[in-house]
Amino acid sequence: MVTFTLNGKQRSFTGDPDTPLLWVIRDFEKLTGTKYGCGVAQCGACTVHLDGMTRRSCITPIATIEGSDVVTIEGISGKEAEAIQTAWAGLDVPQCGYCQSGQIMSAVALLQMVPKPSDDEIDGAMTGNICRCATYHRIRAAIHNAADAMEG
């Protein structure tokens, strides 16, 4: 049995310890905001926060998160999350929307570490989050807008 915290609530999983965290979140916990994209940690659609850091849940065996704190798009909160979500909506960042939960999770983690990121810092933090609709310019602008909103 693996016990962990998911969006602030204690959870236990008694299935196969090699089950990827993504499938525990989606199939067993019924939280579908975290998406399956590639299955090999290359697209970022499955990004969650694991103990405060971004993690690709599609390649994270559930056995490796014993005692950890997992936050999904459904549980993200705080000033950075609010600023990012407001900026995302204000700039109409999503087109198809499939990648957006992973994009938002990475953007929130960036602002938690670097409150006023440069273009290079944004590009570095968002590398590995693929947007098939190519809204990268709006994603970068939204992160800047969120950082500005948090300042004041």
UniProtKB/TrEMBL annotation:
Domain of life: Bacteria
Alphabetical list of Gene3D superfamilies matching this protein: 3.10.20.30, [2Fe-2S]-binding domain (1.10.150.120)
Record domain 2Fe-2S ferredoxin-type: where: 1-76
One Pfam match: Fer2_2
UniProt cross-references to InterPro entries, sorted A to Z: 2Fe-2S-bd (IPR002888), 2Fe-2S-bd_dom_sf (IPR036884), 2Fe-2S_ferredoxin-like_sf (IPR036010), 2Fe-2S_ferredoxin-type (IPR001041), 2Fe2S_fd_BS (IPR006058), Beta-grasp_dom_sf (IPR012675), Diverse_Oxidoreductases (IPR051452)
Record bears the keyword Ribonucleoprotein: no
Keywords: 2Fe-2S, Iron, Iron-sulfur, Metal-binding, Oxidoreductase
Coiled coil: none
Metal-binding is among the record's keywords: yes
PANTHER family for this protein: BLR6218 PROTEIN, OXIDOREDUCTASE WITH IRON-SULFUR SUBUNIT
Protein name per Swiss-Prot or TrEMBL: (2Fe-2S)-binding protein
Native organism taxonomy: Bacteria, Pseudomonadati, Pseudomonadota, Alphaproteobacteria, Hyphomicrobiales
